[in-house]
Amino acid sequence: MSDWLGLRDARVLLVGAGGLGSACAEEFVAAGARLVVADIDRENLDRLDGALGLTSQGCHLLQADLRKPDASEQLVRDAVQLLGGLDAAVHGIGINRRLPVGELSNEDWLEIIDVNLNSAFWLGRAAGRVLSAAGGGRIVYLSSVSGLLAHQHHAPYAASKGGVNQMMRVMAAEWARHGVMVNAVAPGYIATDLTNGYLDTDGNRQKLESLIPAGRLGVPADVATAVAFLASPKVTFVTGHVLYVDGGRTLV
Ligand SMILES: NC(=O)c1ccc[n+]([C@@H]2O[C@H](COP(=O)([O-])OP(=O)(O)OC[C@H]3O[C@@H](n4cnc5c(N)ncnc54)[C@H](O)[C@@H]3O)[C@@H](O)[C@H]2O)c1
C-alpha cells in the first residue's frame, strides 16, 4: 500500500462519527492511521464500527459530549494514552437549524454556537497544547462555505463557521513555530444526515446543483481526501488555510 501522505501509523483523534466523520475514518484507516473516534451518539459510533471494523483493527471508539471543556481535555488525554501520543486531531462535529433570524430562539443560537464553535475551541486548545509540547502535529477543522457566504436561514451556523475560520487562523499563527499546522476544510453541500432532510425538500437538491460549477453535490469522500491531506505529516508548511471543497460553489 502506498503511503504518499505518510499517515501509516499516524495517531489521529477524530471527533465526529456522522456522515463526514465516517468518510474521514475510512480514509484514515485505509491510509494505515491509528484512530480514536469520538462522538456524543453511541449509535453512530457503533454503525461506523460495523461498517469499517474499527475496533477489530485496534482503533478506539469513545462516547463524549464535546460541548463541555472538561470533556475535550479528557478526550485528548485519553487519546494520548490509548495511542501512545498524538499526531493529528480532527474536529468534525456540527449541527444546524435552518430558520430566518426572526424565528430563531435563544436556545437555537446558543446550542449551535456551543456545538460548532465552543467545542472547536475546547478541542483545539487541548490538542494544540499537547502537539506543541511534543514538537508538532496537525489540527483540522470542518468548517463550511457558510463561513464565507451569507446563506439565508443560516445565521448561527454561518457565525459559528466564520468564528471557526478566524479562531483557526489565530491558532495557526500562534503554534506555527512549534510545528503545529492548523487548517480547515470548508465543504459545500454534501449529502449526509446534516443536510439530507433539506436536500430532499422543495427541489432543493436540484436548485443547489445548478449553483455548483462542477454540476453536482459533493460526496463525503471528496471531503475526507482533503482532511487526510491536511492531517498529513508531509504537509509541513501549510497553515491557517480554509480549503474549500465545494465544486467551485464559492467561485460564482
Ligand atoms: N454535510 C455537509 O453538507 C456539510 C457541509 C459543510 C460543512 N459540514 C460540517 O462538517 C461537519 C460534519 O458534518 P456531517 O455532515 O458529518 O454531519 P452529521 O450530522 O452527519 O454528523 C455530525 C456528528 O456530530 C455529532 N455531534 C453533535 N453534537 C455533538 C457533541 N456535543 N459532542 C460530540 N459529538 C456531537 C453527531 O452525533 C454526529 O455524529 C460539521 O462541522 C458540519 O458543519 C457539513
Structure description:
This is SDR family NAD(P)-dependent oxidoreductase. It contains 8 helices and 7 strands; from the N terminus they run βαβαβαβαβαβαααβ. The protein has 252 residues and is α/β, with parallel strands linked by helices. Helix 1 crosses helix 8 (220-231), helix 3 packs parallel to helix 4 and helix 4 packs parallel to helix 5 (155-175). The model has no long low-confidence stretch (mean pLDDT 97). The chain has one domain (11-251): NAD(P)-binding Rossmann-like Domain (Rossmann fold). 44% of the residues lie in helices and 15% in strands. It has a 7-stranded parallel sheet with strand order 3-2-1-4-5-6-7, sandwiched between helices. Nicotinamide-adenine-dinucleotide (NAD) is lined by residues 16-21, 39-41, 44, 65-67, 92-95, 115, 142, 144, 187, 189-190, 192-195.
In short:
The chain is α/β, with parallel strands linked by helices. It has helices spanning 19-30, 42-52, 69-83, 106-134, 155-175, 196-199, 204-210, 220-231, and strands spanning 11-15, 34-39, 60-63, 88-91, 137-142, 180-187, 242-245. Helix content is 44%, strand content 15%.
What topology does this entry show?
Layout: E1 11-15, H1 19-30, E2 34-39, H2 42-52, E3 60-63, H3 69-83, E4 88-91, H4 106-134, E5 137-142, H5 155-175, E6 180-187, H6 196-199, H7 204-210, H8 220-231, E7 242-245
